[in-house]
Amino acid sequence: MTKQDDGIRAQFTKETVITENSDAARELHDRNRFGALLPDGRLQLSLPEALYLIEKKKMGVQDGRGKQYEFERFLKKATRLEPQFWVRYCVLRDMRDRGYIIKTALKFGADFRVYERGVKPGEDHAKWIVYPVAEASAMTWYEFAAKNRVAHSTRKRLLIGVVDEEADVSYWEIRWMRP
User: Fold this and answer.
1) 128, 99 Cβ separation under 8 angstroms
2) Which of 107, 104, 80, 79 shows the shortest CA–CA distance to 91?
3) Identified catalytic residue from 69, 89, 115, 131
């Protein structure tokens, strides 16, 4: 494992990134809620979280042979594993840069859940579920209605994060209304 300035080291294993058991990794989780804390003290990070930390130079990630992942190499590997990775990453990066805590939301049937600024998971519930989409992609009314039903059933607001060709993100919030 390689060491970055703040001491966080990690390894890309199969389809996830696991940090070493260190104070710096635990602090990353405690302060900013990156990853999921494992029983042995290590952090398990989603691929978008790991790339964000690589881009921000907060963490070094190695492959199984001990070779350091640079941003582009990690992006290529993650895109092979998750075809919509770039769009998902752009939304995570934008939300994190805006000061939100964004976590995976697979158990809700969504890509991400987002907490209000200043709220950490476990202190309160997420306010939104987010579905990242590429600006050039299409969504059927059935797909749109399914996403809205998931948000409504989980008592969260629906955000569609639209990523354009320049990797800029625009958000559309959808809510049920009674006329």
Assistant:
1) no
2) 104
3) 115
- Among 57, 67, 76, 125, the active-site one is 125
Q: Please, what are the domains in the chain?
A: 9-81 (3.40.1170.20), 85-174 (3.40.1350.10)
- Distance of alpha carbon 159 from alpha carbon 41, whole angstroms: 33
Helix (H, G, I), strand (E, B) or coil at 117: coil
d(C-alpha 86, C-alpha 80), whole Å:
11
Please say whether the dihedral angle defined by the alpha carbons of residues 136, 137, 141 and 146, taken in this order, is positive or negative. Answer: negative
Which of the residues 29, 103, 147, 156 is marked catalytic?
156
> Can 115 be counted among the known catalytic residues?
yes
**pLDDT tens figures, 147-169:** 998 898 889 999 999 999 999 99
Is 142 known to be catalytic? Answer: no
Closest alpha carbon to 129 in 146, 143, 110: 110
57 is catalytic: no
pTM: 0.90
d(CA 147, CA 159): 9
